[in-house]
# Entry
Amino acid sequence: MPAVTIDPHACIGDKRCLKVCPTSVFALRDPPENLQFMQVVKLTVHGGKQAYVKNELACIACMECVEACPQDAVTVIP
# Structure
C-alpha cells in the first residue's frame, strides 16, 4: 500500500490533487492554526481549505497528484 502525505505548510488549497486523483484519495478541510501568515493568504485566495489524505487505502500510486501539485506538497511513497 502506498504512503500518501500532504505537507500542510506547503499546500495552498488549489484542489489540483483532488481533481486529478482517479480514486478520490483527497478531501478538503480547515487548515491547522499554526500556519505562517503568507500561507494563510495563499489559502484564502483558493477558498480557505486545505487538501488532506482522506482515503490512503484507495491510492494506486499513479503519481498524478504529485505531478499536479505546484507546491510539491504531496508525497507518495509506493
In short: The chain has one domain: 3-77. The mean pLDDT is 97. The two ends are 7 Å apart (CA to CA).
